[in-house]
Amino acid sequence: MNIRVLADKYLLAHAAATQAATAIRNAIRQSGTARIIAATGASQFEFLDELTANSEIDWKRVELFHLDEYLGIPITHPASFRK
């Protein structure tokens, strides 16, 4: 296991997003698509901002499962995470 300690949450988010982006691009290269699971919560905001800003990922080939989405509510509901 490789453990890294970073100075703040922004550097951590960048490092994690860089690693995740590499894994996603590799999955797309090998399989044509990638499937990822995203967690919610304020601790994920910086990571998700960094990851989704990555223009080297072909996002049309990525399927996302959101861990905390609610079943049965429409996308327009204020509690939906699909936005």
Task: Please give a structural write-up.
There is one protein chain. With 83 residues, this protein is an alpha+beta fold. It has two helices and two strands, in the order αβαβ. The protein has helices spanning 9-31, 45-52, and strands spanning 34-38, 62-66. A two-stranded parallel ribbon has the order 1-2. Helix 1 packs across helix 2 (45-52). The longest helix has 23 residues, at 9-31. It is globular and about 40 Å long.
Search tags:
single chain; 83 residues; alpha+beta; globular
**Helical region count?**
2
Oligomeric nature of the chains: single chain
Structural class: alpha+beta
Helix content: 25-40%
Strand order of the largest sheet: 1-2
Tell me the total number of β-strands.
2
Round the mean pLDDT to the nearest integer and report it: 91
Order of helices and strands: HEHE
Q: Give Rg in angstroms.
A: 14 Å
Model regions low in confidence, pLDDT < 50 over at least 5 residues: none
Query: In angstroms, what separates the terminal alpha carbons?
Result: 35 Å
- Beta fraction: 5-15%
Question: What's the story with the biggest beta sheet?
Answer: 2 strands, parallel
What global shape is seen? globular
